[in-house]
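Field reference: sequence -> structure
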Amino acid sequence: MKNPLKFLQEVKQEAFRVTWPTGKETIQGSLMVVAMAIVAAIFFLLVDQVLKFFLDIILKVSI
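Structure field:
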C-alpha cells in the first residue's frame, strides 16, 4: 500500500458500487432466519426427546 489516500478513494468508489438490499428484502431475510431457527429448535427438541425416551428404556431394562 503505497498511497493511503488513493486506497481510501478506491474504497469509497467500491462502496458506491455495492447493491444494498431494500428494507423489504432485509425484513424478509430476517424473518426467514428467525423461521429457520425456530424450525431447527423444534427439530432438535424432538430428536432430544426421542433419544431420551430410548435411553430411559435402555436404562430401565439394564437395572
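Note: The chain has a mean pLDDT of 93.
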